[in-house]
Amino acid sequence: MDKFIYKKSAGITALSASITDFTYKKHSHQEYAIGVTLRGIQHYNLDGSLQLSYQNGVMLFNPEQAHDGKAHDETGLDYIMLYIDPQLLLEVIEKKDIVRFSTPVVYDCILKQRILNLSNAILSGQDEALGSELLLSLTDILIQTNLSTDYKKDNAIIRKAKDMLHTNLGNVLKLDDISRELNLSKFQFIRLFKAQTGITPYQYYLNCKIEHAKQLIEKNGDIYTAVTECGFVDLTHLNKHFKSVYGTTAFEYSHI
């Protein structure tokens, strides 16, 4: 049976998941995502290549890094994840410019244990002060082994396109209007966007809507405000797309 448990504390969301049949659709997150495979094999495509995280593997995802995910075989998969806001991570490591994980999967016992310590503290409802201390302990290891400032930044056209998509989350996506603003044909825009981001403009736009709905639910617990402000037809529509990214419906998430 598939099971997803979310809890948020000190600006960090922790997930404990157990899946057998569930498959994540291709998506991305605004946050850094750091996790540990506890049982089974995590199977996912990242930046055009297949990744397998075996037991004790540490999975590292950068913000807006498109990926999917499932259990590699019928034995299923147990894992935990931490979702950390980029500004929070930069504050902890005392950096101003964005940093990136240079390796998607690593096997490091100390790093694994510090991820588990922080996720267990959040999931068990420990004090936020403890969570902040454990986050600092975790990032001390990340700085030593996996962070890099050398990465491909979005070009000006893609940055402008993303800004336009973010400011119209409550409306219907109109590719013709965006491509015209960028002086590209619709198909040139789709091709360029996917080449730069690994995801189509529509997929990115839908992910942004789902992410914004999640933020609204966390902020005020009003699921119907999320439906309206994010331009979903109704709660069923939101639930369907929310589950494809988070493994649980928006309604279930609002009651965590």
Q: What's the SSE blueprint?
A:
Layout: E1 3-9, E2 12-19, E3 23-27, E4 32-40, E5 42-46, E6 49-53, E7 58-61, E8 67-71, E9 77-84, H1 86-93, E10 100-101, E11 105-106, H2 109-123, H3 128-145, E12 147-148, H4 156-166, H5 175-181, H6 186-197, H7 201-220, H8 223-229, H9 235-246, H10 250-254
Antiparallel strand pairs: 1-2, 2-9, 3-8, 4-7, 4-9, 5-6, 5-8, 7-11, 10-12
Helix pairs in contact: 2-3, 7-8, 7-9
Descriptive account of the structure:
This protein has 10 helices and 12 strands. Strand 1 and strand 2 (12-19) form a beta hairpin. It is α+β, with helices and mostly antiparallel strands and 256 residues long.
- Given as residue ranges, the uncertain stretches (5+ residues, pLDDT < 50) are none
> Strand tally, please?
12
Helix content: 40-55%
Q: Name the shape in a single word.
A: globular
